[in-house]
Amino acid sequence: MNINLTLIGQSIAFAIFVWFCVKFVWPPITAAMEARQKKIADGLSAADRASLDLELAQEKAANELRTAKEEAAALIDQANKRAAQIVEASKDDARKEGEKLIEQARAEIQQERVQARDALRNEVAALAVAGAEKILETSVDGKAHSEMLEKLAAEL
């Protein structure tokens, strides 16, 4: 066999093999590689979008948390102010009630003083009449001398 003929045969067989690979084997391999590249690119872009969405969600959650804390602080402050107002109103009511009770007690004391003074006048008048009867050793008529007794009671 001749080396030239073998070399030509091998060259023809190699060319047929290359043509066969380019025609039937290479397109599915490149299609699979392109599909894989597209899938990887899509996965990377989805990961980037997910990362961006995560950052936005974290910022939104932080803002919501901050807003909730501010609202809670405002509500607590408002409740404290309302509690202070209620306490002050209760103090004012208690003070007014105390003053009212004191005024009632003073009025009762004044009334009792007047009653005691009147009772004392009546007793002094009765004692004066009894003393005058003993001094005069006659009976003093209350009806006849009522004007004098009233004058005496008024002076006492």
UniProtKB/TrEMBL annotation:
GO terms for cellular component: endomembrane system; plasma membrane; proton-transporting ATP synthase complex. It is found in: Cell membrane; Endomembrane system. It is a single-pass membrane protein. InterPro entries: ATP_synth_B-like_membr_sf, ATP_synth_b/b'su_bac/chlpt, ATP_synth_F0_bsu_bac, ATP_synthase_B_chain. Pfam families: ATP-synt_B. One of its GO terms (molecular function) is proton-transporting ATPase activity, rotational mechanism. Residues 51-122 form a coiled coil. Keywords: ATP synthesis, Cell membrane, CF(0), Coiled coil, Hydrogen ion transport, Ion transport, Membrane, Transmembrane, Transmembrane helix, Transport. The keyword Transmembrane helix applies. The chain crosses the membrane at residues 6-26. NCBIfam families: ATP_synt_b, PRK05759.1-2, PRK05759.1-4. Component of the F(0) channel, it forms part of the peripheral stalk, linking F(1) to F(0). The b'-subunit is a diverged and duplicated form of b found in plants and photosynthetic bacteria. F(1)F(0) ATP synthase produces ATP from ADP in the presence of a proton or sodium gradient. F-type ATPases consist of two structural domains, F(1) containing the extramembraneous catalytic core and F(0) containing the membrane proton channel, linked together by a central stalk and a peripheral stalk. During catalysis, ATP synthesis in the catalytic domain of F(1) is coupled via a rotary mechanism of the central stalk subunits to proton translocation. PANTHER family: ATP SYNTHASE SUBUNIT B, ATP SYNTHASE SUBUNIT B', CHLOROPLASTIC. Belongs to the ATPase B chain family. F-type ATPases have 2 components, F(1) - the catalytic core - and F(0) - the membrane proton channel. F(1) has five subunits: alpha(3), beta(3), gamma(1), delta(1), epsilon(1). F(0) has four main subunits: a(1), b(2) and c(10-14). The alpha and beta chains form an alternating ring which encloses part of the gamma chain. F(1) is attached to F(0) by a central stalk formed by the gamma and epsilon chains, while a peripheral stalk is formed by the delta and b chains. F-type ATPases have 2 components, F(1) - the catalytic core - and F(0) - the membrane proton channel. F(1) has five subunits: alpha(3), beta(3), gamma(1), delta(1), epsilon(1). F(0) has three main subunits: a(1), b(2) and c(10-14). The alpha and beta chains form an alternating ring which encloses part of the gamma chain. F(1) is attached to F(0) by a central stalk formed by the gamma and epsilon chains, while a peripheral stalk is formed by the delta and b chains. This is ATP synthase subunit b.
